[in-house]
Design goal:
heterodimer, A: mainly alpha, 16 helices, globular, B: 267 residues, mainly alpha, Cytochrome Bc1 Complex, Chain D, domain 2, two-stranded antiparallel ribbon
């Protein structure tokens, strides 16, 4: 770590991990409710659990992105963060808003729009908070000693993510228009500008971990994010097939969604090619595992599984079924959770000055969580396909079908236990690193990084 | 080989072009949606219903236009399939309609709020969704391929139009009759009513409807008498069910010297 102000990243990461655990707990509540064990219904009905589960995901991923930005930007700009104290204020207020929102969901206080459940009054606080973050990062880059493609793409991603939050705040009495602009936020985030953030983090990690020349890595970053926008922007159409929007979205959405996997495939090939090309054997194998894992799993989860039900003819029957949940789990895990975990695994040794990068716990953490996630996705796939066939194609009653697929949620819960075990290993390692230290800030990070692997 | 500058131009240029196209299409959509969704029919009640829908995060369990969570049924066509009266009774106490099943929150809405929610769902059901939800393509094939389920003696029940009372009193939410309704019944074992005359006489039918557990202790049939069914409706229901019996139905219209009553006795 070169700069003192990078230490704030640790606290963003630690908060993110706390919320990740809470997210998993609420996931379990939903899983058990689906197999009939809904004893918490009075206090935490399914819609509460679901809103908490998805919103905590968004909040912890954003905390991870912000922490990553606070870690990367000073180093890329070669200067201290512009306003380190503002970063603290921003972290604490962001957490307060998040906690108030989560408590509110238990008291029927929300906006009830999928993924954007945060009530309107809190929306404004989120906007102010994110503006403070953008200003802090932006001014650091502006006053920095150097501009790198990585920091510019990262900033552009974060900035447009903040900008795109606004269309979700327009009020409509018409459900179709409401939904139409809601996807401007949700889709253009996760299949658009968040991919810029992911691409920039991936690029930064590849530069650091593989030792490939920055110019080469960054050149391909442009190509990858170019493909992302080329397919992803008009790919928004796949949300507009059946919500009351004109028919031309079926064709436009179908064609450009079919191209979306190419962007993810490009990202996977990019990461693997750079790792192969890189001569330097970085000692932090765990971070490299998570980095490459993210590129590969996001292709499978977001690219391939998304494509599996994005054609209008298929989507007619899978739209609004568990097939969506199947795709959602692996897509978010691969693309955004894993890149955050990669970033944390890379940053922790540097923040704390401890070289705990390659050990059994970190390997278990990586493999168990990934195998667990594959299992969960598999269980949801079987449940979803069965639901599509029985309910949508044969016309059986919803609840009758849910009874038939209950058993797959037993499988889902078992896989989720494995997943959670993996996350526990990861967190155990996180805890062992301890707190960021001033010595770590003053020591020469590159010397520490280039130590050869011993164990 | 590609230079970094070319890569940058590809990214910025591509993004600008495709975002431009997206904006144009969105503008066009914004203009066309009111027509496609019958926006003129968005009454204050519909708008109020939408707010109730959002304030209680109904999408946290249900889907609407296929969007939401997957814990509870898709509601786009629910007014069409269940009927407004059934929904009214259901929303008042969801657990009463599906005892022992997956739970829905009991919201204690006022009658006006319930009417607003139903008005909103009714409006949603009439939006042109480009064919969604599709009619289950395999349903007819399954029905054709299935062996005759109802094995009963005697001639088949008559085909007569189902009176409106079966919808207003919500019977067809669970029971199938004359090929209509019965969606929820498959799960909880509510039988089709076409040949119920073979099993029960008038007194038994009246008792069933008035107080279901008095006939079958563990039945899941809700007691709707006094709630959705008054005495006149009770009589209408029982009259209709008995009128499906081809044997008794033949009697009044037939000439006095017609064939004697068939020997087959209902079981």
């Amino acid at each position: 770590m070169k700069f003192q102000s990078q230490k704030i990243a640790y606290w963003f990461f630690a908060s993110a991990m706390l919320l990740l655990v809470l997210q998993i707990v609420y996931g379990f509540i939903m899983g058990f409710a689906r197999i009939g064990m809904d004893g918490l219904h009075e206090w935490i009905p399914f819609n509460t659990a679901r809103a908490v589960h998805t919103n905590l995901l968004v909040v912890w991923l954003l905390l991870g992105f912000m922490g990553s930005a606070y870690f990367i930007i000073p180093e890329e700009s070669d200067r201290e963060l512009m306003w380190p104290k503002l970063a603290w204020v921003q972290l604490i207020s962001f957490l307060v808003v998040g906690v108030v929102a989560v408590i509110g969901y238990h008291l029927n206080y929300w906006e009830g729009r999928k993924f954007l459940e945060i009530p309107r009054s809190l929306d404004y606080l989120v906007v102010v908070n994110v503006l403070a973050f953008i200003a802090n990062i932006g001014m650091t880059i502006w006053n920095g000693k150097r501009y790198t493609t990585t920091s510019i793409v990262l900033f552009f991603g974060l900035f447009t993510a903040a900008l795109l939050y606004l269309p979700g705040m327009i009020d409509f009495d018409n459900q179709t228009l409401d939904s139409f602009y809601r996807w401007w936020v949700v889709h253009l985030w996760v299949e658009g500008v968040w991919e810029l953030i992911m691409g920039a983090l991936l690029c930064y990690l590849l530069i650091k971990l593989t030792g490939v020349d920055r110019e080469v890595v960054e050149k391909w970053l442009y190509v990858i994010v170019g493909f992302t926008f080329l397919s992803g922007i008009l790919g928004t159409g796949h949300h507009y097939y059946y919500i009351g929007a004109p028919k031309y979205w079926l064709m436009i959405g179908g064609i450009f969604s079919a191209l979306e996997p190419l962007a993810f495939l490009g990202m996977a090939i990019y990461a693997l090619a750079m790792a192969k090309k890189g001569g330097r054997r970085h000692p932090n194998k765990t971070a490299l595992n998570w980095t490459l894992g993210s590129a590969i799993v996001s292709f499978v989860g977001a690219g391939f599984l998304g494509f599996a039900h994005t054609l209008p003819q298929v989507n007619m029957y899978t739209h609004g079924t568990l097939v969506t949940a199947m795709h959602g789990h692996m897509a978010f895990w691969g693309a955004y959770a894993m890149i955050n975990l990669a970033m944390i695994a890379y940053a922790l040794p540097i923040l704390t000055g401890r070289k705990l990068w390659d050990n059994a716990a970190s390997a278990y953490g990586f493999w168990l969580s990934n195998i667990g996630m594959v299992g969960m996705t598999g269980a949801l796939a079987v449940a979803g396909i069965t639901q599509v066939n029985l309910e949508r194609r044969m016309g059986l009653d919803f609840l009758a079908v849910q009874k038939e697929i209950e058993i797959h949620f037993v499988g889902m819960i078992l896989a989720a236990c494995l997943f959670f075990l993996g996350i526990c290993f990861y967190l155990y390692n996180f805890w062992r690193f301890g707190l960021p230290t001033d010595e770590a800030a003053s020591s020469d990070v590159r010397a520490a990084e280039e130590l050869p692997t011993v164990s | 080989m590609l230079t970094k500058l070319q890569a940058k131009v590809f990214f910025l240029g591509g993004t600008a072009v495709f975002f431009g196209i997206f904006l144009v299409l969105s503008f066009d959509t914004h203009l066309k949606v009111p027509n496609q969704t019958n926006a003129a029919n968005i009454t204050p009640a519909v708008a109020a219903g939408k707010r109730i829908w959002e304030e209680n995060n109904c999408m946290g369990c249900h889907t609407l236009f296929g969007e939401g969570a997957y814990y509870a049924p898709e509601l786009t066509k629910t007014v069409e399939t269940r009927g407004k009266d059934w929904l009214k009774i259901f929303i008042k106490d969801p657990a009463a309609m599906f005892p022992g099943q997956r739970k829905m929150v009991k919201y204690n809405f006022t009658d006006e709020q319930i009417d607003n929610v139903i008005a909103f769902l009714d409006w949603c059901g009439k939006v042109d969704l480009n064919g969604f939800p599709a009619k289950p393509p395999l349903r007819d094939k399954m029905i054709a391929a299935a062996p005759q389920m109802a094995v009963s003696s005697g001639p088949p029940p008559l085909k007569k139009p189902v009176p409106a009372v079966f919808t207003t009193a919500t019977c067809i939410g669970c029971h199938q009759i004359q090929g209509q309704g019965g969606a929820a019944g498959a799960l909880i074992g509510a039988p089709p009513l076409d040949d119920v005359f073979r099993r029960y006489d008038r007194a038994k039918l009246v008792a069933w409807i008035k107080d279901p557990p008095s006939i079958k202790k563990d039945t899941k049939m809700p007691k709707l008498y006094g709630l959705a069914v008054n005495d006149a409706q009770l009589n209408e229901i029982v009259d209709y069910l008995l009128s499906l019996n081809p044997e008794t139905a033949a009697t009044p219209s037939a000439a006095p010297t017609a064939a004697p009553a068939p020997a087959v006795q209902p079981k």
